[in-house]
Amino acid sequence: MRFLTRDKTFYTALVTLAIPVVLQNLVAFAVNFTDNLMVSSLGDGAVSGVYVGNQLHMLIQIFANGLGGVVLVLAAQYWGRGDVRSIRRITAIGVQLAVLLGLAAGLACRAFPAGIVGLLAPGDEVVASGAAYLSIVCLSYPFFCLSQALIAALRSVESPHVGLWVSLLGFLVNVSLNWLLIFGHGGFPALGVRGAAMATLIARVTECAVLLVYLFRFDGKLGLRPAALFVTDRTLFGDFVRCGIPMICGQIVWGLNTMSNTAILGRYPASVITAASLTNTMNTLAYIIMMGMASAVGIITGKTVGAGKTELMKEYARTTQLLFLTLGVMTGLGVWLLRDPFIALYGGITPEAAACARQLIGVLSVTVVGSCYEVACLDGLVKAGGDVSFVFKNNTFFVLCVVLPSAIVAASLHMPAWIVFACLKCDQILKCFVAVVKINRFNWMKNLTRDMPDAPDTPEHGGVPPR
Length: 467
Known about the structure:
- This protein is mostly helical.
- It is built from 15 helices and no strands.
- The protein has helices at 8-39, 44-80, 84-111, 113-120, 124-137, 141-156, 161-181, 193-218, 234-265, 270-306, 310-344, 351-383, 388-412, 417-425, 427-441.
């Protein structure tokens, strides 16, 4: 039994697939960071309004990521067996559902922007700026959702670099237009939060347009044509729904956990909230790298399981565990060593906030070791390997039965913030024990593909002729 595979293609694929995904996630992080930085000069009301408006985007992103995840898992397995026709049909299903999601959310926010913002933050100033922002940025939702589905399809056929370049283009467009439209440079009117929303809208439309042009004109793997995005396939739609429900529900549980973390720590003084915000920024940076690597593992896993190479997949699974445990230890050590320099970047925070941040980052340096291992194993191996429902059930159990109850009790007893933070992160360690058992039983490898009828690739049959 080998603990490290000698198949060099695994390591090559892991690196070549992970780098574009990691960089794309970093670009997305930079977009949000830059937006907040540029809007901050408009005052607290504008910052709060844009923040509340973006909470709706986060909710939509949760569902869009769930749909994209289903496309990735199913399409990667069909990629392993060389069935491009089915990948096109799965992509079409994902695109149709994603656009419906974006249209529904966009129309609701366009019709009731002030009411929706008021549900989250009732202050008059926040509602005014948040509604002004949301009424424009909501028009970008269909384009964003469509882009997420298409990027997932491209990742499934081992073309993650396209998403990176598109995201980079969107970042440049967004930042440039922010500078012009928020502050009124270059002869443009100073539109404030409306300018920020318009910049985001134009960036999303640009990303979507470039993706479609690439897929229809230059892509040599999927062979998509516009008509292919409007077809349906009842059999694959049923598979999509069965796989999609636990994945989307899992995204909802993740969103609930994130919002609950904010609410629980929000009961503490401002210094703790500041420290938590700073710590979460460092956690996000570390998580970006982990998720990029785990996504690469997921693509390799789906392709290998779809091809029916069970023994090779077992070899890859053992290698993945060792690699990511090592990466986790290195990441944890890096977080520990960099905590003081990182805190020093925030020179304006109070000594109390800095001291609290040091404690929270100390906890993070431990839990991030578990995060690296369990994310790669449960998301990269188990979920992509076909056992989607297990990951959902496991995450739901730990969030609802362990993480939130322990953190609520700790906060109610007025325990130190670092203890509450440790409760909120304890599942990252506990899930590792589950992952070890689950992975090494190898009962998570489930081939989700099926032999599809050899119908001609015409629009009415659900596809387009390959080039």
